[in-house]
């Protein structure tokens, strides 16, 4: 089938949602300059940069935000939604971040001596076995169904290939393969980070931009089409710098409370922002977060296979059994926690009686849905030491 006919027949009706249940009208979004910050007041925990779409104010705005979890100790009657009390002010800042380096050992800065130890687990949608997390010779990223992720001494990343491309017929000119696209996206993010050594300033959005450009180049040459959401987090000093486009999730846990959870970017229900050959979304449209962290914090990163099936309370409950609040730390390797979270999400995804976050959001949209959401599950857990 000719390329133009392929687009007319298959692409536009299929592009958008993860499981394509209806045609979603594509909305065009304008691009805008962005601002980042290298420092902010100590009494704030997070700096969040958002794009705006207003023609009167086309610039991104930056919010200093302090998170204080109002959630009490876990109990069977606890709410399914963690609430936050926020203190925020808006301030514009202008600075630049460059990129960082690769050393296959925990990263630590001379100023704060913080480093990451981490584990990662993946279970593809149609299996009950963990994927191998051993890097192969071709890619530095790990494939889990249509998910992909990478781990480094100072950074983590996850991407979720958009399943709607399965409805696009391949031909001799084009191959629809979101799994390959997401894997390339994470592979090139890893290699881009590997180029630099002990550079304090880093902008994960620039890393994502470079990875995006190289992935597009490869896919154009190979005749591959696809799209993916993506999240990259980088540790520098006492800051965790994050860029996210789409609905992958990240939360920071301190003393068994979630002090930060990123927002999802969706054009409409089940239709996330995404990077790809024919997507209007670009890395510059991503959300940027800078989180103040400290020793003992836990970071949980995952594809929507985790966060569509587990509430924040479920995640905290699972982690609580592996921590010792009296001693203020973990009792196990983070790999044990990531395995446990992946299995719990897998069980929830196959349970028709499970009250899942995805079910709740579907019902809010007026759609009938019951149980968990079957999906590829990728989760990375890191401890700050």
TrEMBL record:
Cofactor field: Mn(2+); Mg(2+)
Pfam families assigned to the protein according to its UniProt record, in alphabetical order: PP2C_2
Family statement: Belongs to the PP2C family.
InterPro entries: PPM-type-like_dom_sf, PPM-type_phosphatase-like_dom, PPTC7
Domain of life: Eukaryota
Entry EC no(s): 3.1.3.16
Lineage: Eukaryota, Fungi, Fungi incertae sedis, Mucoromycota, Glomeromycotina
This protein's UniProt keywords: Hydrolase, Magnesium, Manganese, Metal-binding, Protein phosphatase
GO MF entries: metal ion binding; protein serine/threonine phosphatase activity
Ranges for domain PPM-type phosphatase: 131-384
Reactions catalysed, as given in the entry: O-phospho-L-threonyl-[protein] + H2O = L-threonyl-[protein] + phosphate; O-phospho-L-seryl-[protein] + H2O = L-seryl-[protein] + phosphate
Name of the featured protein: Protein phosphatase
Name of the top EC class for this enzyme: hydrolase
Organism: Gigaspora rosea
Magnesium found in the keyword field: yes
């Amino acid at each position: 089938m000719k390329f133009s006919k392929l687009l007319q027949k298959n692409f536009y009706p299929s592009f958008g949602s993860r499981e394509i249940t209806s045609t979603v009208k594509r909305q065009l979004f304008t691009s805008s300059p962005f601002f980042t910050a290298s420092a902010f007041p100590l009494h704030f925990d997070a700096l969040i940069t958002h794009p705006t779409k207003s023609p009167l104010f086309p610039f991104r705005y930056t919010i200093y935000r302090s998170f204080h979890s109002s959630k009490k100790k876990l109990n069977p009657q606890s709410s399914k939604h963690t609430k936050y009390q926020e203190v925020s002010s808006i301030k514009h800042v202008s600075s630049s971040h460059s990129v960082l380096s690769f050393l296959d050992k925990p990263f630590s800065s001379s100023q704060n001596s913080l480093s990451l130890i981490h584990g990662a687990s993946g279970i593809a949608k149609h299996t009950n076995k963990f994927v191998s997390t051993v890097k192969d010779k071709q890619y530095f990223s790990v494939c889990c169904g249509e998910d992909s992720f990478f781990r480094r001494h100072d950074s983590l990343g996850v991407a979720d290939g958009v399943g709607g491309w399965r409805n696009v017929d391949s031909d001799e000119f084009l191959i629809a393969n979101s799994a390959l696209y997401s894997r390339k996206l994470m592979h090139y993010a890893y290699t881009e980070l590997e180029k630099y050594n002990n550079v304090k300033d880093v902008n994960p959005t620039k890393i994502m931009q470079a990875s995006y450009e190289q992935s597009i180049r490869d896919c154009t040459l190979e005749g591959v089409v696809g799209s993916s959401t993506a999240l990259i987090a980088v540790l520098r000093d006492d800051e965790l710098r994050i860029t996210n486009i789409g609905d992958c999730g990240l939360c920071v846990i301190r003393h068994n409370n979630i002090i930060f959870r990123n927002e999802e970017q969706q054009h409409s229900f089940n239709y996330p922002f995404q990077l790809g050959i024919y997507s209007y979304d670009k890395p510059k449209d991503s959300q940027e977060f800078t989180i103040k962290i400290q020793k003992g914090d836990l970071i949980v990163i995952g594809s929507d296979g985790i966060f569509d099936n587990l509430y924040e309370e479920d995640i905290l409950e699972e982690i609580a059994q592996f921590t010792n609040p009296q001693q203020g730390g973990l009792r196990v390797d983070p790999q044990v926690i990531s395995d446990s979270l992946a299995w719990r999400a897998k069980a929830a995804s196959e349970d028709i009686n499970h009250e899942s976050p995805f079910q709740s959001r579907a019902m809010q949209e007026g759609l009938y849905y019951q149980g968990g959401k079957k999906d590829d599950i990728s989760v990375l857990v890191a401890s700050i030491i």
